[in-house]
Design a protein that fits this description.
Blueprint lengths: L15 E4 L2 E11 L2 E8 L15 E5 L4 E2 L8
Antiparallel strand pairs: 1-2, 1-5, 2-3, 3-4
Length: 76
């Protein structure tokens, strides 16, 4: 039996990412089929007139679907 290890994830908890349809923060990740899947909590939008009922949406995305947000505060 040959043991294989998945490469280290490219993204980590707390990092801000963009994806088709929005942006959010990585909450967790796990290896899946030779790559990584990430649980991303979407950023909260403006509060609706009727108020909030619960938490915002968290979605599971593959590594290929995510783009790390650049930190513009480091550019001068």
């Amino acid at each position: 039996m040959i043991a294989t290890t998945a490469a280290l994830p490219h993204l980590y908890k707390g990092q801000k990412v963009n994806f088709l349809g929005g942006s959010g923060t990585i909450k967790s990740y796990h290896p899946e089929a030779g790559s990584w899947s990430y649980l991303v909590e979407m950023e909260m939008g403006p509060e609706p007139e009727m108020g909030r009922i619960g938490y915002e949406t968290a979605i599971l995305l593959s590594q290929a679907d995510l783009i790390l947000q650049e930190d513009n505060s480091l550019s001068a």
